[in-house]
Amino acid sequence: MAALVETRELFAVYPSPSGGVAALQGLTLAVEEGEICVVLGPSGSGKTTLMRVLAGLERPAAGAAVVAGLDLARASRRQLGRYRGRVLGYADQHYWRALAGELTAEELVAVPLGLASVPPRERRGRARELLERVGLLDRAAARPGELSGGEQQRIALCAALAHRPRLLIADEPTGELDAATAEDVYALLGELVAERGATAVVVSHDPASTEIADRVVHIRDGRVSEERQGQEETVVVGAGGWLRVSEEVLHAAGIGDRALVASRDGVVELRPAGIRERARAVPPPSVAGARGGTLVARGVVRRYGSQTALAGVDATFSPGELTAVTGPSGSGKSTLLTLLAGLDVPDEGEVLLDEIEVSALDRGARAALRAELIGVVRQDPGLSDFLTARENVELGLALRGIGDAESHERATDTLVAVGLAEHADRRVAVLSAGQRERVALARVFAARPEVVLADEPTARLDATATLAVGSLLADLARKTGTTVVCATHDPLLIGRADRELQLGEPVRVASA
After folding, report:
1. pLDDT per position as a tens digit, 189-216
2. E strands along 105-257, which residues?
3. How many CB atoms lie within 10 A of CB 278?
4. Among 113, 154, 173, 405, which residue has the least CB neighbours within 10 Å?
5. 239 vs 62, 65, 246, 380, CA distance in Å?
6. Which domains does the chain have, with CATH numbers?
7. Contact at 8 Å (CB) between 451 and 482?
8. Strands (E), 362-401
9. Can you say how many angstroms the Cα of residue 267 is from the centroid of all Cα atoms in its chain?
């Protein structure tokens, strides 16, 4: 079968003060017509850059990227526009960018069909069919601001599939979904691709994504390092005979910085070379903080039209504790954090921070309270793309009245703490979603608030980065007394928490 997607010796380089950072380093990959290829790899390995090249959103520095016969590196803007409108379905990991706030869920899904001149009645039928299949038909009239992050993510995926593309590119399509909903979405994605005979390239950190895969590809350091098809797993041999063996395999074999290589009877063996050297990495410094405040929700109710997002929630969040707020997609986790932050007020009940009744303050007073005492990391990190990681952190501190010298020192320390020291002077626009998430965390940590509220802070991180961020959040609470609350589906982050607050299914009332 012919390859629909083919990349050869693909390089992508982003400028930096030190001369450039290579996101892709000679990546070669072919995906056949009708194949579902799942791409795995750690945060920052080049997965998203590959997806953006295949979507025609970035041009490679060198090499070739050919999809359906079109050389994306040399195509004109008109050709790329036609390619994205007719051949491609693209579900970006920054899904909120594709959702115009003034449109309903049904209208959003129908947009690609309207651009393809599909008649209105057919557009509506197709949109409602897809919404029903992801369990959101009853939210067809809701706008993005009335939906949870997980619901928005499913709508963005529906929009990417609406026009029945020949190639679907899905970058972390279930990053903010609970396990059960993610499983349903993967099953749907597999069904819809198979029904159309389409090809799909799916980037994920979630091992469950491999269940729908015809082939699994691992990317490390901007190259394909391993492939698995069926039960057969292979390590890719690069130009010059280079092999990339995963850290997990090396660790299990007890191999450090050196290995003994032996070849006999057609078998190549790797064995530890003497005493294994200890890891060179230095543990990240603790993040400074301030004594936290007690955050209380009493009888909190919040409604959006016919939906009751929160129905009488009572909870206390104490200083020195990391609390994980859990529950299925749409259960009100994000809504609760929004109310705790004073970004919205409840329809009933009250929110208090120590003796301050947050929910009774006007908008200006709530904003002043956040600036002084509360740090918020939302699902959309809200970073300035044209600024570097360091400048984003320093800007947050400047808005709080912290001087240049101190803000520079704090920004440097917190970027080291979240594992971004080498990316501190790169523009946020060229960072991966996982790296952007860590910049957002650094911006909040640097302010040293009494309360940190983080909405799905590990949704786009691999397991290693998730454990590191989970440890940072836990240390922030336990070592500094900060009150830390995270909305999450991630079992690794939940495992680091001191307490878990479980929310139930949303309450939906049928319209009269």
Report:
1. 888 778 778 899 998 877 778 888 899 9
2. 167-171, 199-203, 215-220, 223-229, 232-235
3. 8
4. 405
5. 16, 18, 18, 40
6. 3-229 (3.40.50.300), 245-280 (no CATH), 295-508 (3.40.50.300)
7. yes
8. 374-377
9. 40
